[in-house]
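Working notes for the structural subgroup meeting. M.R. asked for a predicted model of this chain before we commit to crystallization trials. I am recording the input and output together here so anyone reviewing the notebook later can reproduce the run.

Input as submitted:
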Amino acid sequence: MTANDFFQLGLFVVVLLALVKPVGAYMALVFADEPNKVTRFGARAERLLYRLSGIRADEDMGWKRYALAMLVFNVAGLAAVYLLQRT
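Returned structure, recorded in token form:
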């Protein structure tokens, strides 16, 4: 490894360690049960995406519906990757 490789690795570790506390605080706000600025910021976009997707936020998803959603999503992703690699 060259000196540049060590510098890049060291810079990556420093940036990663510098971001640990702010990202952890952000995650704690997002996963908290009480409403806050972070959840209010994305609430409008989330409601719009739910409305466009036909998802009801108050309805639970059973394991069969979840498995079907995962299967459809993964097949669509597989098809997209296949088409990207074919071109």
